[in-house]
Amino acid sequence: MSLHLVLIGPPGSGKGTQAVRLARRYSIPHISTGDILRQAVRDETPLGRQVAAIMASGALVGDDLISSLVEERLARRDAAQGFLLDGFPRTEAQAQVLDGLRRHLLVVHISASDDEIVRRLGSRRICKSCGLTQSVPENDLYSEDCPYCGGSLIRREDDEPETVRKRLTTYAALAGPLIALYSSRPGYIAVDGLEAPDKVTAAIFAALDARR
Predict the structure, then answer these.
(1) Distance from CA of residue 43 to its chain's centroid?
(2) Picking from 38-42, 138-142, 149-153, 184-188, which range would have the lowest pLDDT averaged per residue?
(3) Which of 23, 114, 144, 193 is the right S-S partner for 110, CB 3.0 to 4.6 Å?
(4) Is 15 annotated as catalytic?
(5) Do 70 and 88 touch, CB atoms closer than 8 A?
(6) Average of pLDDT values for 146-175?
(7) 15, 73, 120, 125: the active-site residue
(8) Are 197 and 120 in contact (CB under 8 A)?
(9) Which of 42, 103, 128, 156 is catalytic?
(10) Residue 167 bears catalytic tag
(11) Is the Cβ–Cβ distance between 73 and 45 less than 8 Å?
């Protein structure tokens, strides 16, 4: 049975970790809007050339174009038995397009409070030398040395508390209507992203297997 998944969750909820695990467990492609846009530009398809021109101008890719790109991507052979969409749909208009492309969607919503996300991302550091992203224990937040290579640890600009809260406000404005739409459907699955990653994974697997 084909598995058509949509993954929704705020930045810092652990969505990226769960997407990798879901794609591996069910042998389906993990399709993100960023990947779609970059691939279309690389392939220099007619839609890709439109995307390249829009991105070069600094404008945002509109609903119609991103929806067409997703439709094109879902038509590929590797998505015939299912897919995991990450970052699409972002608007109600995009959700309506997806409804027309695929039926029986399962929507996994990973939730987490804003305060917890700010705390989580506030403890995230990246090493300037090896590039590894890691979480620093709360009792070691001011450590400056990477435990793996000894390089300098820095906090990414988009992980600063004020920036994170702005990102969360933007996310809520976009995701709120989508969650309201999908939560009324039988294929909606909500999980607590505050749990340990393995517990979140187990909860998602159990819910999906029960609905297949």
Answers:
(1) 23
(2) 138-142
(3) 193
(4) yes
(5) yes
(6) 89
(7) 15
(8) no
(9) 156
(10) yes
(11) no
Residue with tokens 């009324």: 184
* Domains of the chain, earliest start first: 3-113+175-211 (3.40.50.300)
30 contact partners, CB below 8 Å, separation of at least 6: 19, 20, 22, 23, 84, 86
Which of the following is catalytic: 25, 38, 119, 124? 124
Residue 103 falls in the annotated catalytic set: no
Q: Angle at CA 2, nearest 5°, toward 21 and 85?
A: 50
Find residue 112's DSSP bridge partners.
none
Give the integer Cα–Cα distance in Å for 157 and 166: 12
- State the catalytic residue, choosing from 90, 119, 155, 165: 90
Beta bridge partners of 15: none
**What would the two tokens of residue 25 be?**
């467990």
| Average pLDDT over every residue of 94-123 | 93
* Average pLDDT of the chain to the nearest whole number: 90
